[in-house]
Design brief:
Number of strands: 9
Shape: globular
Strand order of the largest sheet: 6-3-8-7
Largest sheet: 4 strands, mixed
Length: about 190
Amino acid sequence: MTDPAEEILDVVDENDEVIGQAPRGEVYARGLIHRCAFVLVRDAEDRIFVHRRTPTKLLFPSLYDMFVGGVLGAGESYDAAALREAEEELGVSGLPRPEPLFRFLHDSGGVAGKWWSAVYEVRCELPVNPQATEVAWHAFLPEEEVAARLATWEWVPDGLAAYQRMSALRAGRSAGEPGGTGGERAGG
């Protein structure tokens, strides 16, 4: 397996238009805007796949996440990355195509720049065998339990932001209301 820091990514601007390419390590170090796909995975009982990242991850090691996903490789579409990342991290094949929900520009507050985040949802009724290099612990949790743990577990900031935006959209709040979802665009 190649070094993740050497993976070539598309560098994009504030409008999500490609303006160049660079290795992931350089993108993070220089705080360049890039692209990510997040997939909320539900099982047949509507529980959410939650996991703790491995301590070897380049960003946010050992933190919890309610999304699977990751950065898009150079030239990769959001849709292709969402399916690839979900299948890789869950250790499955034949997953249905994830449904695009929205996009937003996440600012990491100086950790690794900004990234356009395309948020998806998919139902996985297959037995999962999560990728050991990505997932240290996992479980399918009822949404009420995920909500209860938001204040007690340390979550990846971008996943938490995506979850809060998704929850606000489902609650019917618009971008201008408290807890709203300013900055999103249609997914896909």
